[in-house]
Amino acid sequence: MTLADGLSHGPDRVHDLAFGQFGIALIRKEDTLKKGREMGKNVNRKWKASAKMISLGLGVSLVLGAGIQAQAVTVSTIAGSFHERGAIDGPGREARFEFPQGILAAPDGTIYIADTGNDMIRKISSNGLSGATPTPAELHHLSVDVEDIAGSDHRARYRDGVGANARFNNPEGMAISPDGKTLYVADSRNNMIRKIDLATKTVSTIAGHSFPSSGDGVGKEAGFETPRGLAISPDGKTLYVADSGNNAIRKIDLATNTVTTLAGAGKLMSGSADGVGVQATFHEPRSLAISGDGQVLYIADTRNNLIRKMVLATNSVSTLAGHPGFPGTLNGPGPDAYFYHPVSVTIDGNKLYVADGANADIRMVDLSTGVVSTVAGATLNGGVPIAGREDGSGVEGHFQFPGAVTVFHGVLFVADTPADTIREVSF
């Protein structure tokens, strides 16, 4: 038996013991699982535990599971400059963005960015990476050159066309076809779903019209209201939409552009009820991620401070983690964890990463256990988030407000929205 981090005392300390390959953590309900303190900040421990939490009464719980060594993370800025807004292409920190709210890693490692404030789609070069697993050296030496794909800065309107002749209005979430040839964009203020042929940069509209509405139908006959999140099925045949303003999850058959509502009770029926189809309710769902087998959709239910999941075979919606309506920073088994304005989700195997916007950090839900942990960002003692721009390892790396997150071969890329920068989180 070893004493993992030292048995600390006091009302807000974690008692963390390691018994061979197993660990026991004794925590208060309002605390997070963490390995210790540095400079008055919480150092987040990656904790692999069973979903079983045993209540000991008096607000104290015993969490049982397999403890793993705390893994240092490094947060670095790879493109853009803090609060220096613009629409300038160029290498790394010489490039400029304005309020980027969407980010997506393509199969070849290209990073696409919805540069929301500029009404543009941009990209960061992958330096020729293939879909094969790259070496860490390759990942950390990407050719960080920012290039425009479509749209024109500060010319918010609707127009199909090629490259800079096309127009978007507040583009946010994106999805890419499995072959990497077509990029789909949630054009939120145009209430449309657009697509870009990446070979020609031709932009066209596949569904929706400029006026907010909620009707199902084919192509431009269907209506959306502020669609923000997209996910595509592994076979590339179905596009899923987080229709935020309608509190609904929709799907588009890409062969016919037919739009169908899968779940959610509509704009006037926000809520957090689990259930099947329209019996389930949401409050501003903003982001989607789909499991590798295409069977489960994960949803950032932003205004509810929840992470939800939907089984696509039945349209059954359930809550995976969080407390409806109550913000917080607590880690632990799903029902005991708290989020604060989670705005983006991305999936990597059995790890669901969450950009927990108002907490200024990146969280992770272990899908095999349901346990929530914090992987990047920091909080003061007492759970107050630290928002900032600093790069660094462990608790020294801060975010202003992580507005979108994507993953490529285990490395996270984050659109730090009000900071106007693109950040990287490496493990």
Task: Summarize the SSE layout with pairings.
Layout lengths: L14 E5 L2 E7 L5 E5 L2 E4 L8 E5 L2 E6 L8 E7 L9 E2 L10 E4 L5 E5 L4 E5 L11 H4 L5 E7 L9 E2 L8 E6 L5 E6 L4 E6 L4 E7 L8 E2 L8 E6 L5 E6 L4 E6 L4 E6 L11 E2 L8 E6 L5 E6 L4 E6 L4 E7 L9 E2 L8 E7 L2 E6 L4 E6 L4 E6 L15 E2 L8 E7 L2 E6 L4 E6 L1
Antiparallel strand pairs: 1-2, 2-6, 3-4, 5-6, 7-33, 7-36, 8-12, 9-10, 10-11, 11-12, 13-17, 14-15, 15-16, 16-17, 18-22, 19-20, 20-21, 21-22, 23-27, 24-25, 25-26, 26-27, 28-32, 29-30, 30-31, 31-32, 34-35, 35-36
Structure explained in plain terms:
By secondary structure, the chain is an all-beta fold. It has a 5-stranded antiparallel sheet, with no helix packed on it. The chain has a 5-stranded antiparallel sheet with strand order 8-12-11-10-9, with no helix packed on it. It has a 5-stranded antiparallel sheet with strand order 13-17-16-15-14, with no helix packed on it. β15 (182-187) and β16 (192-197) form a beta hairpin. The radius of gyration is 21 Å and the shape is globular. The longest helix has 4 residues, at 136-139. The two termini are 28 Å apart. It contains 1 helix and 36 strands. It has 2 domains: 15-65, no CATH class; 74-426, 6 Propeller (Neuraminidase), CATH 2.120.10.30. The chain has one helix at residues 136-139; strands at 15-19, 22-28, 34-38, 41-44, 53-57, 60-65, 74-80, 90-91, 102-105, 111-115, 120-124, 145-151, 161-162, 171-176, 182-187, 192-197, 202-208, 217-218, 227-232, 238-243, 248-253, 258-263, 275-276, 285-290, 296-301, 306-311, 316-322, 332-333, 342-348, 351-356, 361-366, 371-376, 392-393, 402-408, 411-416, 421-426.
